[in-house]
C-alpha cells in the first residue's frame, strides 16, 4: 500500500476513535453508561439512577444507540436499555483506574471543558 494511502487509513482510524470518545465525553451520556453497568434499565430507572430529566435521558439514549454503545429491547410494554457490548463496561472500568492516577492533572488541565474553578490549572504550556 502506498505511504499516502497508509497515512490516510491511520488518520481515518484516529478520527473514528476521536468520534467514539465523543460518545463518552458528555457527562450526561457518561452517567447513563455508568448506570447501565448494572444491567438493563428502563428510561425511568435511568432517570432515577442519574438524576437527569426524562427528555435528556431519551435524547442521549438515542445518541448512544446510534453509536452502537447501547441497545434496547422490548419486554411486554416496557423498553429496556443496556450496554451493547461488555467491553463498554470494561472501558469505563479502565477509565476509572486511569483516572485514579491522573485525576489531579486532568482536573487542572485548562484545555478540557471543565468547571470554571479548574481554569487556572497547569496545562497552559502544551
TrEMBL record:
CDD domains: HTH_ARSR (cd00090). Keywords: DNA-binding, Transcription, Transcription regulation. Residues 10-103 form the HTH arsR-type domain. The keyword Transcription applies. The keyword Mitochondrion does not apply. InterPro entries: ArsR-like_HTH (IPR011991), HTH_ArsR_DNA-bd_dom (IPR001845), HTH_MetalResp_TranReg (IPR051081), WH-like_DNA-bd_sf (IPR036388), WH_DNA-bd_sf (IPR036390). Pfam families: HTH_5. It comes from the Bacteria. One of its GO terms (molecular function) is DNA binding. SMART domains: HTH_ARSR. PANTHER family: TRANSCRIPTIONAL REGULATOR, TRANSCRIPTIONAL REGULATOR, ARSR FAMILY. This is HTH arsR-type domain-containing protein. It comes from Chroococcidiopsis cubana SAG 39.79.
Amino acid at each position: 500500500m502506498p505511504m499516502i494511502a497508509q497515512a490516510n487509513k491511520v488518520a481515518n482510524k484516529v478520527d473514528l476513535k476521536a468520534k467514539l470518545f465523543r460518545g463518552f465525553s458528555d457527562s450526561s451520556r457518561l452517567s447513563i453508561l455508568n448506570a447501565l453497568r448494572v444491567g438493563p434499565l428502563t428510561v425511568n430507572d435511568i432517570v432515577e439512577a442519574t438524576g437527569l430529566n426524562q427528555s435528556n435521558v431519551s435524547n442521549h439514549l438515542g445518541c448512544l444507540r446510534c453509536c452502537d454503545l447501547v441497545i434496547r429491547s422490548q419486554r411486554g410494554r416496557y423498553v429496556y436499555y443496556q450496554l451493547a457490548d461488555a467491553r463498554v463496561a470494561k472501558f469505563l472500568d479502565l477509565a476509572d483506574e486511569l483516572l485514579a492516577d491522573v485525576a489531579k492533572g486532568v482536573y487542572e488541565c485548562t484545555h478540557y471543558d471543565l468547571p470554571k474553578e479548574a481554569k487556572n490549572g497547569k496545562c497552559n504550556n502544551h
